[in-house]
Write a structure and sequence with these properties.
37% of the residues lie in helices and 21% in strands. The protein has 15 helices and 23 strands. The strands form 7 sheets. The protein has a 7-stranded mixed sheet with strand order 16-17-18-14-13-20-21, with helices on both faces. Strands 10-9-8-11-12 form a 5-stranded parallel sheet, with helices on both faces. The protein starts with 10 loop residues before the first strand and ends with a strand. The chain binds nicotinamide-adenine-dinucleotide.
């Protein structure tokens, strides 16, 4: 492994002491109650900073999925019958409840993922805002005007819930990704069964505990367990109307296959490999400062992370020096240590995966200008890394590393920059850095990504959609488009001529 790890990149230690009363019940949440697992199998939950066990949750089975779906199905008609106003008032109370317990939620998230408090608090508060946004949005739905589009026949469009939605969430933003699903799904009048990542179920179980008295029993059900068993059973279940997954491409393909027999709808938010196009007229200081955050937020375990820089060759040296200086100053450590900006990656398996990318890059002559390998344990810490001398088509610039690693390639022309930016299987997010309005507009139009930022990166809002093209999946999270995805239109045409 590279010896380029900077001595400044040491780990600030400050273990988080979690009060055991803050932990949620380590059980499934079915029909409004916490119930023990039937199989007796357990999944260990580990603190990635210390590698110590902090909890264990039941290893769910298809039988428990079936119980959860039955509970959700039973609860759905009454929940859907509530007026948008009444469903919205429940969602507002959920947002308030999450905010009241934001510190506990953030501490659980930090303990389970190693996130710095700044990241965990941002997750919790913006997740609460998702509930507020969806509460407001469902009361202001719009549709095509009711009218006689055929003589004497009045057309009215109804927007209806789908029914029961199965949800599978990842480990990088455990609560936030759950909130992005739960809020629009409930707002639209559906009920749901959610399987959190087997590595990070604690904040989702805590959310179920905190909101148990606000939601009718069965509206939200949580089954913990492994992907193929619990997620697969949800995707295949004949009484689930849609399966929504945020996760890797492989998991997305698997649920789409499992969903095919019952022809249920599929909603997929998958991986990303966001290109960052830095042109010769860009404000290089502002770009480097922004990428220090956008490339390394949440240890780079972020599907929209600014992980792949393409910079014009005439400014490459100057820009790379600025980026490397900015990245070298990132403070790495445990959540309770002072001023920490970057924590570990989530698990041993993922740590080995990220280190494998770095090792192979080095073997292929790619240089780490800063970082380049793991930091001393315990914990799954990887040094914030900038890879340079990256040739076109290199693995580190094509595949999702999902760690604190940014690669830098150079280009000569605008056309080449766009072509290479688009030459990845993903299509989630991208950014363009230029002072030219003409170039910003033309390049944004040519980029094949669901989000394009201009002179910015990784700025999200509940009002605007998030989702990808190509291998990044289909369907939209956030905004009114998520509400539309989790509902269906019905056309009622009445013959007024009789
Ligand atoms: P993962 O695919 O390994 O796991 C995600 C979830 O899918 C987990 O709950 C897992 O148990 C479940 N799962 C795994 N195999 C399954 C199967 N065969 N059937 C059903 N469920 C299955 O992904 P991860 O490692 O937890 O998360 C990282 C991935 O998520 C990255 O690729 C990242 O880009 C993506 N992600 C995307 C977005 C987005 O908005 N597009 C957001 C966050 C994360």
């Amino acid at each position: 492994m590279s010896t380029a790890v900077d001595p400044a990149q040491t780990i600030r230690r400050g273990p988080l002491t979690l009060d055991p009363t803050e932990l949620p019940p380590q059980r499934h949440f079915l029909g409004g109650e916490f119930v023990p697992g039937a199989s007796g199998g357990e999944l260990e939950i580990v603190d990635p900073c210390t590698e110590a066990r902090i909890a264990a949750v039941p290893e769910g089975t298809a039988a428990e999925v079936d119980r959860a779906v039955t509970a959700a199905r039973r609860a759905q008609p009454d929940w859907a019958r509530l007026s948008p106003k009444d469903r919205a008032s429940v969602l507002y109370r959920i947002a308030e409840r999450v905010e009241q317990h934001a510190q506990t939620m953030a501490r659980l998230e930090s303990a389970n993922t190693g996130k710095p408090p700044e990241v965990a608090e941002d997750d919790v508060l913006s997740g609460a805002d998702t509930f507020r946004f969806m509460a407001g949005a469902v009361r202001a739905s719009t549709a095509q005007a009711a009218a006689e589009y055929v003589e004497q026949h009045l057309s009215v469009l109804l927007r209806e819930p789908l029914g029961v939605v199965g949800v599978v969430t990842p480990w990088n933003y455990p609560f936030l990704m759950a909130a992005w699903k739960i809020a629009p799904i409930l707002a639209a009048g559906n009920t749901l069964v959610l399987k959190p990542s087997e590595q990070t179920p604690l904040s989702t179980l805590k959310f179920a505990e905190l909101t148990a008295d606000l939601l009718p029993p069965g509206a939200l059900n949580v089954v913990t367990g492994l992907g193929p068993e619990v997620g697969g059973a949800l995707a295949a279940h004949p009484d689930v109307d849609m399966i929504a997954l945020t996760g890797s491409v492989r998991s997305g393909q698997s649920v789409a296959r499992a969903a095919a027999d019952s022809l249920k709808r599929v909603h997929l938010e998958l991986g990303g490999k966001a290109p960052v196009l830095v042109f010769d007229d860009a404000d290089l200081d502002a770009t480097a400062t922004a990428l220090r955050t956008a490339g390394f937020w949440n240890s780079g375990q972020e599907c929209g992370a600014a992980c792949r820089v393409l910079v014009h060759e005439s400014v490459a040296e100057e820009f790379t020096a600025k980026l490397v200086d900015a990245v070298r100053a990132i403070v790495v450590g445990e959540p309770a240590a002072a001023e920490v900006e970057l924590g570990p990656v989530v698990s041993k398996a993922h740590y080995e995966r990220v280190c494998g990318f770095l090792r192979r890059a080095e073997e292929n002559g790619i240089r780490a200008a800063v970082g380049g390998g793991p930091l001393d344990g315990p914990g799954y810490f990887v040094a914030p890394t900038v890879l340079v001398d990256v040739p076109e088509g290199a693995e580190c610039a094509q595949e999702e590393i999902f760690g604190p690693v940014v690669s830098v390639e150079t280009f000569r022309t605008e056309e080449e920059a766009v072509r290479r930016a688009n030459a990845v299987p993903y299509g989630l997010a991208s950014s363009v850095w230029t002072e030219s309005g003409r170039r910003a507009q033309q390049v944004a139009a040519a980029l094949d990504f669901g989000t394009v930022w201009v002179n910015s990166h990784l700025v999200l809002a509940n009002e605007v959609p998030w989702g990808g093209f190509k291998g990044s999946g289909y369907g939209r999270d956030l905004s009114i488009y998520a509400l539309e995805d989790y509902s269906r239109t019905k056309h009622v045409m009445t013959n007024n001529g009789r």
